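About this split. The held-out portion is used to measure sequence recovery: a designer receives only the structure tokens and must propose an amino acid at every position. Recovery is the fraction of positions where the proposal matches the reference. Here is one held-out target exactly as it appears in the evaluation file.
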């Protein structure tokens, strides 16, 4: 059963992604996916948190509400063809975002959300090199210090929100000077990684194996091998995501991702079953044989 737990569309992330929500879904169906999660970026609460191409936070919340309406319509339209999970990708910029994410997640249409960190010291760390360097200077001037601050922010997010799915755990690698470095070689960073992994396992969270790192030029998906080995040794549960930003990315590098998982000795992945709009219910975890993902995915 091929699936993806993380996606975006140009319809609701304009300037960030391409294509309509339905076009992205149709591409997922054509690639043999049987479960697909809609997880547009959540609205932000301050103009200070806008990306360079954005002018105001004013349209973000209304756009999010329209996204949920459209996602629910598509879930009904494609029932029996593909299971659609409705969620959003969280933005942990500062602790005050915990209240906003909790509020957004209370909508009965929402099955889950992804707990992600894209900012350190209020600066986006995966947008471009200039902003990454700005965040690094605020952290003390080295990649190691910025990595430590990133994983501390992630630790705060995990403890505050207990997300069902944790997004691209080591995203901080992307624009660093040595993005393919083994994090285990950096003691202070590795200790924080292991600490965070223990929290995810204790919370029963799913850690996404995110293949978008490969299309962005990294040698391995998120998370890197040493992180995956450590997480799996703890009994952690991996899920699978393409983090698509339009139809061109749906299922991109899944063949490489599956081979990577096989090399890690992974036999089963995990996904969620939807709440079906039931108030106060909780999406349940379901195991999916990796062999089934490989067999059903249309390369």
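Reference sequence for scoring:
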């Amino acid at each position: 059963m091929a699936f993806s737990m993380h996606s975006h569309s140009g319809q609701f992330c304009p300037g960030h992604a391409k294509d309509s929500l339905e076009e992205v879904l149709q591409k997922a169906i054509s690639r043999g996916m049987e479960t697909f999660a809609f997880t547009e970026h959540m609205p932000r609460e301050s103009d200070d948190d806008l990306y360079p191409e954005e002018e105001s936070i004013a349209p973000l919340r209304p756009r999010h509400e329209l996204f949920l309406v459209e996602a629910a319509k598509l879930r009904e339209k494609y029932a029996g063809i593909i299971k659609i999970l409705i969620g959003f990708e969280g933005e942990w910029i500062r602790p005050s975002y915990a209240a906003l994410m909790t509020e957004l997640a209370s909508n009965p249409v929402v099955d889950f959300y992804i707990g992600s960190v894209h900012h350190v010291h209020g600066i986006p760390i995966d947008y471009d090199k200039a902003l990454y360097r700005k965040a690094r200077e605020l952290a003390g001037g080295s990649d190691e210090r910025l990595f430590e601050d990133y994983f501390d922010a992630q630790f705060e997010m995990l403890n505050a929100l207990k997300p069902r799915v944790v997004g691209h755990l080591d995203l901080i690698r992307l624009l660093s000077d040595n993005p393919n470095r083994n994090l285990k070689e950096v003691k202070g960073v590795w200790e924080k990684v292991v600490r965070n992994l223990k929290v995810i396992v204790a919370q029963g969270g799913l850690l996404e194996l995110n293949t978008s790192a490969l299309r962005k030029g990294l040698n391995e998906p998120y998370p890197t091998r040493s992180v995956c080995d450590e997480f799996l040794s703890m009994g952690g549960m991996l899920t699978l995501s393409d983090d698509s930003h339009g139809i061109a990315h749906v299922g991109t590098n899944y063949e490489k991702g599956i081979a990577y998982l096989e090399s890690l000795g992974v036999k089963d992945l995990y996904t969620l079953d939807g709440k079906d709009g039931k108030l106060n219910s909780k999406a349940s975890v379901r195991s999916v044989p990796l062999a089934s993902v490989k067999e059903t995915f249309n390369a």
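Annotator remark: Residues 143-161 form the longest helix (19 residues).
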